[in-house]
Write a structure and sequence with these properties.
The complex is a heterodimer of chains A (about 270) and B (about 260).
Chain A: E1 5-12, E2 15-21, E3 30-34, H1 48-58, E4 63-66, H2 82-97, E5 101-107, H3 109-120, E6 124-130, H4 137-149, H5 153-165, H6 187-197, E7 201-207, H7 217-223, E8 232-237, H8 247-264
Parallel strand pairs in A: 3-4, 3-5, 5-6, 6-7, 7-8
Antiparallel strand pairs in A: 1-2, 2-4
Helix pairs in contact in A: 1-8, 4-7
Chain B: E1 6-10, E2 17-22, E3 30-35, H1 40-58, E4 61-66, H2 83-101, E5 107-111, H3 114-124, E6 129-133, H4 139-154, E7 174-175, E8 178-179, H5 182-190, E9 202-207, E10 218-222, H6 240-251
Classes of the chains: A alpha/beta (about 270), B alpha/beta (about 260).
Chain lengths: ~270, ~260
């Protein structure tokens, strides 16, 4: 039985969004905004965003998904920085849903955008960060060592070849951290403290499919003591790839995030 | 500059279809329904057909694109997608297009597996033209190719450096990452596209170096960058000049009035 509806809303400049709406009598004050994963359009990787939006709407949370300019149905390329666009999207989401606070974010660069929006707008009370910012450091090296011990003979031959030729290892397929808009090292601790001090809640998940996050210790080393604050829910899924190719991972993420949302934002 | 595209939620048989209409700029020369590919190819090609729809609209061709039930933004679980359902959805979408452009017979484009839905329309009703884009004509071979691709991704140490890609929940069946029903598997295995006696003028849109799917048929060669998405699972970029050039050639098709 479907207990949600969907409607399209105009977000201006040739961009529209789809809002999954709960029945009016079950609507909560918290809405959710899911950003594109790179250039993958609105329904998300293997349709995960569409499914997530519908699940959350069934739980009472209006949820918006849309295409950034230059992605999917938003034919024109962006003429403004992403942050200016998401500020306007937040306004329209509030008008369309009546919600006064939001959880925003997504995978990869969408996580970065959710974080930045939360830093400048207190209506963003929660952030969804999948494969967000993490620094490398000693735990990264430990992770590499751990991977190395599991390598096959063929893998070792590749490593030896790279060492001899000083070639760089191939990046994992989807994420290359130098494409990300991350602040200078150290800024993330100040930013996290600011978010926690105003009561924001963070759902943080790292997959095993990035080139830069190989060990859960990187998360604690990156964010310091605040990484263990009560406002943070941290997950590391080493067997999950960056785009959640496996249905087990997608279903697991949707369940886990929905549970987090209902606990953190019961109204 | 084209008129703004219109997102639509199509009413019809509780299928909950999401569609996008690109109104033609100026005089309507023709109307085109795009039956998209399915499974991972649906997402892979979405941007390409959005761009093409926009370009054709600027050339006087009204375009309607839609997501099948169980795909994209349409209603339905992933596993609810079926070929029979896709054929049904194509009829709903065609009616929606007709209601917007009047009585003229539309052209139907079937891309990859969308050829199954497009061919069923061409078999059943008068169309102005049928355009098949790298069509899948042999379902059994297509399924075998998808299974090979799926296995390669599940076993990829680049996608899964820590292993884990071969995990599947008990009782689940997925292909290229997407859950699918036993019904769909059986449908694809037995599906074939064969040239119908009632088909309107046929145009193939295929890479120049590919063997023609239907020999002796008008063919438009795909430029580099517009055909490779069929062998990938991850997202791609489509060169705008190549899309514009393709739109020029499609808009110059003999079945479209000047």
């Amino acid at each position: 039985m479907m207990n949600f509806t969907e409607e399209t809303i105009d977000l201006g400049e040739g961009v529209f969004g789809i809002v999954s709406q709960p029945p009016p009598d079950r609507k909560k004050k918290t809405g959710v905004i899911i950003f594109n994963s790179g250039i993958l359009h609105r329904p998300g990787p293997f349709r995960m965003h569409a499914r997530l939006a519908r699940r959350l709407a069934q739980l009472g949370y209006p949820t918006l998904r849309f295409d950034f300019p230059g992605v999917g149905d938003s034919l024109a390329r962006a003429t403004r920085p992403p942050m200016q666009i998401v500020r306007d999207v937040l306004e329209r989401a509030q008008q369309a849903t009546g919600c006064t606070r939001f959880v925003a974010g997504g995978i990869c660069s969408a996580a970065d955008l959710g974080w930045q929006l939360a830093l400048e707008d207190e209506r963003v009370a929660g952030v969804l960060l999948i494969d967000g910012l993490a620094r490398k450091g000693r735990y990264f090296l430990l992770g590499r060592l751990r991977r190395a011990t599991r390598k096959s003979l063929g893998g070792w031959i590749d490593v030896a070849r790279r060492v001899i030729t000083r070639a760089k290892p191939p990046p994992t397929i989807e994420t290359v951290e130098n494409l990300r808009d991350w602040p200078a090292p150290g800024a993330e601790r100040r930013e996290l403290r600011a978010l926690l001090e105003r009561g924001a809640a963070l759902f943080i998940l790292f997959s095993g499919g990035t080139s830069y996050f190989l060990h859960p210790g990187q998360f604690y080393a990156t964010y310091g003591a605040d990484a263990r604050a009560p406002g943070i829910d941290f997950h590391y899924w080493p067997q999950c790839d960056h785009m959640m190719y496996s249905e087990i991972d997608r279903a697991g993420f949707i369940d886990t995030f929905a549970e987090w949302l209902t606990q953190r934002f019961p109204d | 500059m084209s008129a703004a595209l219109q997102p639509l939620l199509l009413e019809g048989d509780d299928r909950g279809l999401f569609a996008v209409f690109h109104p033609a700029l100026g005089r309507v020369r023709a109307a085109l329904l795009i039956c998209p590919p399915f499974l991972h190819e649906h997402a892979m090609s979405y941007r390409l057909f959005a761009m093409l729809g926009g370009e054709l609209a600027q050339r006087g061709i009204a375009v309607l694109r839609f997501d099948y039930h169980g795909m994209g933004d349409s209603a339905g679980e992933d596993s609810a997608f079926s070929l029979e359902g896709a054929r049904h959805d194509a009829r709903i979408a065609l009616d929606a297009l007709r209601s917007r452009i009047g009585g003229a017979a539309p052209i139907v484009l079937g891309a990859r597996g969308g050829a199954f839905a497009a061919a069923s329309l061409a078999d059943a009703m008068p169309l102005r033209g049928l355009w098949l884009w790298q069509p899948v004509t042999d379902g059994a071979q297509y399924l075998a190719d998808l299974e090979t691709l799926d296995l390669a991704h599940r076993r990829s140490t680049r996608r899964y450096p820590n292993g884990g890609g071969e995990r599947v929940a008990p009782g689940d069946r997925t292909i290229v990452g997407l859950p699918c029903s036993a019904t769909l598997i059986e449908e694809i295995k037995t599906a074939r596209v064969e040239r119908g006696a009632k088909w309107p003028p046929l145009t193939l849109i295929e890479p120049a170096d590919a063997a023609p799917t239907f020999p002796g048929t008008r063919r438009i060669a795909l430029a580099n960058g517009l055909s490779e998405w069929v062998t990938r699972v991850d997202i791609d970029h489509f060169p705008p000049p190549a899309v514009r050039d393709l739109a020029d050639r499609l808009a110059a098709s003999p079945e479209i009035p000047r």
